[in-house]
Amino acid sequence: MTPHTAQTDPSGSTIIETRDLVREFSVRKGLSRRVVRAVDGLSLRIGAGEAVGYIGANGAGKSTTIKMLTGILVPTSGEVRTCGLDPTTRRRDLARRIGVVFGQRSQLWWDLPLRETYPILAAIHGLSSERERERTAELVDALDLAAFLDTPVRQLSLGQRMRGELAAALLHSPGLVILDEPTIGLDVLSKAQLRQFLRAERERHGTTLLLTTHDMSDIEHLCDRVLLVDSGRLLYDGDLPSLARSMGARRVLVVDLELPHPDLTDLSDEDGTPLAGVDLVGSEADGLRQRLAFDTEKTSAARLLAAVTRRTDVRDLSIEEPDIEDVVRRVYASGLDT
Ligand SMILES: Nc1ncnc2c1ncn2[C@@H]1O[C@H](COP(=O)(O)OP(=O)(O)OP(=O)(O)O)[C@@H](O)[C@H]1O
Hints:
Bound molecules: adenosine-5'-triphosphate
CATH topology of the largest domain: Rossmann fold
Number of domains: 2
CATH class of the largest domain: Alpha Beta
Shape: globular
Strand order of the largest sheet: 5-6-7-3-8-9
């Protein structure tokens, strides 16, 4: 199979472009050294205003790509332009135009409260005091920061800190925001807040988003395009539903029952029509918790739940999205050829 490639509008303005981008690392193995090609001939174009998910298994080359896009790493060969600039030679200029958020690394000063942090960042970016006041107020409101503005960063919860990080990265209203695993470790509510904020920011200011994530819901809620990499090469460029569908990825309904129950198999509608695309994929504690994978193209979550509740009483439920690792595994299993 050849990689699916999205047709992007050639007339739209380009915000990220790479051509045959390569990055190698020399790694010591015992007494000898060997070369690892973390990024291997990557060519892509991202237009202004797009929201793109950059996904792939662990070690696929995502972080290395992001580091080259932001000027942290120099490419071994090939070309890269971010906001029209060469990131390695124009790193300072680039910093004024982009915002970068690392889910696993804080960019805030640990001992300072956010109230003292933002004026420093505003000064670094050369914002006027009026602009600083306006933008800080906008971000404090949108990210609901008011309650902990005076707390030193080290005392914030992870969810609070990530909201503070986002405000810091977006204070100068960058046209491009690059996020590396922004929702990692966050609870459901904090994830929802972050996504809601990024969506609103994009709608209001036309901000371009590029994010890596292992959470498929981040992509579902935020991105209209997905780039899938494996061993540093682009395997897929298109939308998420097509990728997930082509890989047969399914959601899972997890039900906790009032009483132990035999396996929930052969489920059907009220009129006896069997539900298609549903499989029991787990049963624990004598059937008190059962997991049903379902294909949303064939059976909706509501129909499936109705079929379960006709059989037995449900105490609690949740729906697990297919995770990207699973989709990626399916890509490999299907023998997609690069
Ligand atoms: N500084 C480095 N020195 C040597 N090898 C490296 C270095 N950085 C990355 N690599 C290797 O390059 C490959 C790609 O790594 P990279 O961190 O870009 O992957 P990733 O897709 O971001 O993975 P993850 O999802 O686990 O963060 C891996 O084989 C990794 O071991």
